[in-house]
Each structure stands twice: as structure tokens, then as C-alpha cells.
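User: Please fill in residues for this 554-position structure.
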């Protein structure tokens, strides 16, 4: 069990966490959510003991051990995958070495020495067995295979791609004997087969988890409660249920609070109007009459009205209903102003072949997209999804034919803004695509969460979530009527995801969407699901059918 009590943390006088408390019970799986910058990673580092709180404490049961997966892990490039995984086994590896040492010593030990050696041998073997040490090699192979690391156990870590290095860090954590796992964005870079495998791994074990993830479907299927960090007041609140249940409960609470606020405001206006009318009548009566008793009565009425006014003020101080805060969301309402006719051919791809350095990635790919097609393009990492989009955009050479319909204007968002210059500022990148005055550009970018001096930051210093938001800002102004979206949700927090879902669900034009975020794919309402595997493209009935197919093959 793990318990956080009244944790407070600040950096340079800026509060990040305020009076944060919660309990993680044995076998419990919780999701930690909140906007980017709310302090989720900070809280995980405090729980892992990598940082100390300014005040408060973290208590861990002495029988438990904690392992932590950072959002951007480092790997020892001098190791092979097998060596890195064995190091992840931690205590199990040390216990195995101790067992071997004891087995060498016992045959040579005298009677007096043998008895304590046997006792230690039994204790060490029991602990080794408890940690699953005898199945360690098989477990390593299962985890590496399940996460589709794309490399043999003897491959050097230095040869892995950035995504596969992240997978290796996750694999090392999963193979450890730790009973409490703290996972910061474990779903980044995982394709659907690896996501489904990880879901099953998390839900079938007996460990406890605190999971930070923007993959809401993953949270729906793995966690039993949600910890929400508030970015404004820096406090934490516990909600029962999975992500969807938390989201619905929060929506109902906000609607109830809004109605209570509106009702109270209406009552305040009614009482204030009554007080104003009473005071006005008293003043009018007092000014029109010279009869002393009438004047005294008018003054008494005015005095009572003033007392009611003070009573209302005290009542509001004690029982005022706070107006629900509106999140600062993305504004994408202008997306798709010039839709294409339903059955008109937007894109015609015939016998497309493409690759890199002699390695063929796409083989005889053919595809027709019409005016109302909303296509989800799925498939394992490395299957060629991004390559297909880049061929359509004319960014990589290919064989075969690609034709777009007359009047079709393609707008695209690429993974992590790879086509944008890293050394230019946000406002320079934005104005290079749009002829706006600087003040006008600042106002527009503010709508996309770039406030004040943030527009002067170099593009290369932005988080990947901020890069995606800048790409979206430019997409809205591009006058595009056919969208190519390559992992547009990467690193985005829930408020931004929900704003993009709302915009794309209202967008009536054609699009091709590459995304591992199943919640997002469902929310935007795709009507075709294509799967790209081993260079070949095929259509399936839907996302659920593809998930079932992947699980059957696992």
C-alpha cells in the first residue's frame, strides 16, 4: 500500500501541488489526469522518491517496492536488449546470483556452517520464486514480444528507434518484481496490438498502478478510479470508476453547479429589485409628504430595506455558489467551410509503391476516397501509414499514380510537426503560412493557447502537444477541404482532445486519420476503417472488429 499525505510542492515560488492526499491500496489501479502542466509528472516523482515534497509525506508499506517509468526515459546504449531487460529484473537477478553462490559453497561447507547456509538458501529461493525468477527468461520474451519491440534480445539498444527505446523502458519496468508501478504516459508510441497487450497485462496482474495517460480508452479498460489534478488550485480529487464514468460524473456535477448558480443569480436579482423598489418608494414617500408620522414610517421602511440588503450580502458571503469555470479550449469552429460533394472523387491512388533505402514499405496500394469518406488508417508501427500520407502530400518519391480531384485543397497535420522549422519562433512559423499583421496573429494564436510571450518561443522548444496545436491553428486558416491527420492527438491533454473531437465531428468533409487513440477515432465518427500491414492495404468492418482480429492473433 502507498499513502500520500498533505503533499505540497513549489518551484521558484510557483505552486504545483497543494495539500495532495490519497491512498493506493494493494492491487488498485488508478488513472492520474489533468491538463498538461497540472503537476502529474511531479506527483509521480514524489511518489517514486526521486524528489522531496516541500511538506507532507509519502509512506510505502515495507513489503512493497516501487518502480517508475518517466515520460522521457533514458536507456543505457551500451547494452543489448537482453542485458537491459535483465537489469530491469533488479532483485530477481541479484537473488539468482546469490542462489548460484550458495550452491557453490554448500558442498564444501562443514556441519556448523551448512545449517545457516541451508536456511539462507531456502529464504533466498523463496524470495526468488515469489518474484517469478524461475520464469524470468520466459517473461522477458513474452513482454518483448507483446510490446512488439521490433528487435531480437541480442540487438544493441543503440540501434532501436526512439519509440522502441520507450517500449524497452516500459518492458524493463514490467519485468521487475515491483509491486507498485508508476507509469507516466506508457501508451506513447504504442500501436494497437501493443496497446491491447498492455491492457491485458495491467488488468490480469496483482500489482498496484498509478497511470498517467492521454489514451482514454486505455484508462477506461484498466483503471478503477481516477485522480484529478486541478491546474488552477493545484489540488487533487478522487473520483470512482474509469475515465468515462469520471467524465460523465464531472459533467453532471458541472451542470448541477451551473443550474444552482443561475438559480441563485435569479434570486439575487429578484431580491435586489425588491429592495431597490422598496427604497425608491420610501424615498418618494418621504419627499412628497410633510406629515411627520408618514415620514417616520417611510424612513423605517427604508431602514428595513437597508437591513435586507446587508443580510443578503452576508448570506452571499456564506452560501454563494461559484460560477463553474470554463476551460480554455481550442477554437476550431471554422474547419471545413467549403465541403466537397458526397460522391465526388477526392483522391485516387493506384498501384502505389514506395520505400526507403531499398526497403519497400508500400506495395501496390490502391485507394479511392470520396467526398464524405472519413477514413481511419490503422496498422502496426512501421507499416507505412505515415509514408502513405507523405506520398499523397508529395513529400517522398513513389511509383504508381496519385490523383486528387479538381478543387481539392489538402490540409495536413503531421506527427510532431516534423515539417516545420525548429529555429523559428511560433509567430514566425505561423505568419509564414498566413499573411496577418503581428497583432492580428497574436490574437488568433491566443485562441489556440499561445498567450503573451509564448508566441516568441522557438518552435523547437515547444512540447509536442503545443506543436500539434500550432499545426491546427494553421490548418484552420488553410481553407483546406480534405484533411490528412497523422497522429494529431499525440501528447494532447483531455481538454484539447475534446475540442478537436468536437471540431472534427462537426467537419463534414473527407479526411484520412492516422491515430492509435481509439476513443478519439470513435468520437470523430469515421465511416471507413483501413488497415495497412506488411505494405498492403485492406478494409475492415470497423475498429472493434480489428481489435478482435488483433486479439485472436496474439
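Assistant: Residues filled in for all 554 positions:
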Amino acid at each position: 500500500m502507498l499513502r500520500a499525505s498533505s503533499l505540497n510542492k513549489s518551484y521558484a515560488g510557483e505552486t504545483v501541488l497543494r495539500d495532495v492526499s490519497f491512498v493506493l491500496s494493494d492491487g488498485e489501479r488508478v488513472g492520474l489526469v489533468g491538463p498538461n502542466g497540472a503537476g502529474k509528472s511531479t506527483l509521480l516523482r514524489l511518489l517514486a522518491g526521486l524528489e522531496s515534497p516541500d511538506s507532507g509525506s509519502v509512506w510505502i508499506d515495507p513489503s512493497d517496492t516501487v518502480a517508475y517509468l518517466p515520460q522521457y526515459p533514458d536507456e543505457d546504449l551500451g547494452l543489448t536488449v537482453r542485458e537491459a531487460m535483465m537489469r530491469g529484473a533488479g532483485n530477481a537477478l541479484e537473488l539468482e546470483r546469490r542462489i548460484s553462490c550458495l550452491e557453490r559453497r554448500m558442498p564444501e561447507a562443514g556441519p556448523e556452517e551448512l545449517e545457516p547456509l541451508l536456511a539462507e538458501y531456502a529464504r533466498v529461493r523463496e524470495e526468488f520464486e515469489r518474484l517469478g525468477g524461475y520464469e524470468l527468461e520466459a517473461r522477458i520474451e513474452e513482454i518483448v514480444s507483446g510490446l512488439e519491440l521490433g528487435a531480437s534480445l541480442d540487438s544493441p539498444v543503440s540501434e532501436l528507434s526512439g519509440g522502441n527505446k520507450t517500449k524497452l523502458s516500459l518492458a524493463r519496468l514490467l519485468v521487475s518484481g515491483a509491486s507498485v508501478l508508476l507509469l507516466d504516459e506508457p501508451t506513447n508510441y504504442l500501436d494497437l496490438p501493443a496497446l491491447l497487450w498492455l491492457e491485458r497485462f495491467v488488468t490480469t496482474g496483482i500489482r498496484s498502478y498509478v497511470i498517467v495517460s492521454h489514451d482514454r480508452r486505455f484508462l477506461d479498460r484498466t483503471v478503477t478510479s481516477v485522480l484529478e489534478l486541478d491546474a488552477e488550485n493545484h489540488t487533487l480529487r478522487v473520483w470512482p470508476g474509469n475515465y468515462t464514468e469520471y467524465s460523465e460524473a464531472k459533467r453532471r456535477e458541472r451542470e448541477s453547479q451551473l443550474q444552482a448558480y443561475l438559480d441563485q443569480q435569479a434570486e439575487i436579482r429578484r431580491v435586489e429589485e425588491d429592495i431597490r423598489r422598496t427604497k425608491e418608494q420610501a424615498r418618494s414617500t418621504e419627499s412628497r409628504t410633510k406629515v411627520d408620522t408618514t415620514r417616520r414610517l417611510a424612513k423605517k421602511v427604508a431602514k428595513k430595506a437597508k437591513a435586507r440588503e446587508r443580510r443578503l450580502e452576508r448570506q452571499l458571503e456564506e452560501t454563494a455558489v461559484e460560477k463553474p469555470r470554463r476551460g480554455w479550449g481550442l477554437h476550431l469552429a471554422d474547419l471545413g467551410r467549403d465541403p466537397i460533394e458526397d460522391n465526388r472523387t477526392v483522391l485516387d491512388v493506384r498501384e502505389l509503391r514506395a520505400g526507403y533505402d531499398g526497403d519497400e514499405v508500400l506495395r501496390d496500394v490502391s485507394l479511392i476516397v470520396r467526398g464524405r469518406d472519413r477514413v481511419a488508417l490503422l496498422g502496426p508501427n512501421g507499416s507505412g501509414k505515415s509514408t502513405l500520407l507523405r506520398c499523397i502530400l508529395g513529400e517522398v518519391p513513389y511509383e504508381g499514380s496519385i490523383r486528387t480531384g479538381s478543387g481539392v485543397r489538402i490540409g495536413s497535420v503531421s506527427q510532431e510537426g516534423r515539417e516545420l522549422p525548429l529555429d523559428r519562433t511560433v509567430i514566425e512559423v505561423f505568419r509564414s503560412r498566413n499573411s496577418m499583421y503581428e497583432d492580428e496573429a497574436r490574437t488568433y494564436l491566443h485562441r489556440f493557447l499561445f498567450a503573451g510571450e509564448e508566441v516568441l518561443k522557438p518552435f523547437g522548444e515547444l512540447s509536442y502537444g503545443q506543436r500539434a496545436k500550432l499545426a491546427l491553428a494553421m490548418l484552420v486558416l488553410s481553407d483546406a477541404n480534405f484533411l490528412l491527420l497523422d497522429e494529431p492527438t499525440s501528447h494532447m491533454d483531455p481538454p484539447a482532445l475534446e475540442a478537436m473531437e468536437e471540431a472534427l465531428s462537426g467537419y463534414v468533409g473527407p479526411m484520412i486519420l492516422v491515430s492509435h487513440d481509439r476513443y478519439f477515432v470513435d468520437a470523430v465518427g469515421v465511416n471507413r476503417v483501413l488497415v495497412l500491414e506488411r505494405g498492403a492495404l485492406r478494409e475492415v468492418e470497423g475498429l472493434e472488429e480489428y481489435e478482435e482480429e488483433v486479439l485472436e492473433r496474439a
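For context: The mean pLDDT is 83.
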